[in-house]
Amino acid sequence: MSSFLFNLLLKPPSAANGVAAGQPFIPYNIDWIFPQLQKPSRLWRIASTGVIGLVGFFSKIVIVWLNKTRVHNIQVLENALESRAHGVPLLTVSNHHSCFDDPGMWGLLKLRLLKLRNVCNKNVIRWSMAAHDICFTNKYHSLFFMYGKCIPVVRGAGVYQPAIDLCIEKLKLGHWVHVFPEGKVNMTKEDLRFKWGVGRIIYETPVLPIIIPIWHMGMDTVLPNEPPYYLRLGKKLTYNFGKPIDLNQLLNKLRASPVSEEEARKMITDKIQEEMMVLKAETERLHLDHLKS
Questions:
Q1: Residues with Cβ < 8 Å from 148, sequence gap 6 or more?
Q2: What radius of gyration, in Å, describes the C-alpha atoms of the chain?
Q3: Could you tell me if 254 and 267 are in contact, meaning their C-beta atoms sit under 8 angstroms apart?
Q4: Cβ(134)–Cβ(14) under 8 Å?
Q5: Of 5, 133, 146, 171, which sits most exposed with the smallest number of CB within 10 A?
Q6: Nearest to 112 by CA among 64, 160, 67
């Protein structure tokens, strides 16, 4: 793997919080990126094929072959990728413990599925929000992550911003979108309140997505959040894919009652977090068994 790709994938979290109190830090103008992602050109598709394939295969090597990984219930995601009806969107949500969580976790997808169909296919692999001040700091980084189907999100800019709008657009097209609802790399692993952006995404998508929760443990031992920043080998990782979260009843209730959009976003997000906390407790037990083995 080239040093360029290594630096792109393993860039540590930025310490900058903003130019002024309460104002998001904008190190690089990202406005030009959104039109490219909304209507990808032929050149974009060619470049994306190369980036997705390279990063997907690299992730497979690191996570599956060079570390000791236990995976539970990944068939839930694979079934959704292979068998969901045309036009039905897919939304995955997971905790965020390391800068290598994405793309690392997608290396778990089986290479045998339709000749690399999932892990290395730009038409199948997820769209994912990525921090603008980490991944989109200059033109070359922006191109790389853009071709990797990453959408620049400005942390601190609220739920009404282009990144959230674009995630909704992609789901409307029946695509797969991944969200880290904690909103940042959770270095302390505390129980953070989930960001309401995930609630808005679900509430404003016309066709309710298949919502699959994922909890993982050990990724911060593969790529620590403190220097030196390099990949470790032989670490024990645990991934747990939960059953799809059914929000039909909640959404029907919200749309039948006179609640504000803000209230609706909060209630949806709270439900997602509730389900994720159940999955977290289960995964902690599974990971402890893995460490003892």
A1: 48, 51, 52, 55, 103
A2: 18
A3: yes
A4: yes
A5: 5
A6: 64
How far apart CA 283 and CA 106 sit, in angstroms, is: 18
Both tokens of 125, joined, read 């692999």
For 93-127, the DSSP string reads: EE---STTHHHHGGGGS-TTTTTTTTTT-TTTSPE
| Residue 256 in tokens | 């039948």
Structure tokens belonging to residue 87: 């036009």
Q: Compute the half-sphere exposure of residue 87: CA atoms within 13 Å on the CB side of its CA.
A: 2
Per residue in 204-240, pLDDT (tens digit) is: 999 999 999 999 999 999 999 999 999 999 999 999 9
Give the alpha-carbon dihedral of 44, 46, 47, 51, to 10 degrees: 120
In the numeric block, which tokens belong to residue 3?
A: 């040093």
Beta bridge partners of 80: none
**Nearest Cα residue to 148 out of 174, 132, 162, 130:** 130
By 3-state DSSP, what share of the chain in percent is helix, strand and coil, each rounded to 5? 45, 15, 45
What type of residue sits at position 48? S
User: pTM surpassing 0.85?
Assistant: yes
pLDDT tens column, 79-129: 999 899 999 999 999 999 999 999 999 999 875 443 345 555 667 889 999
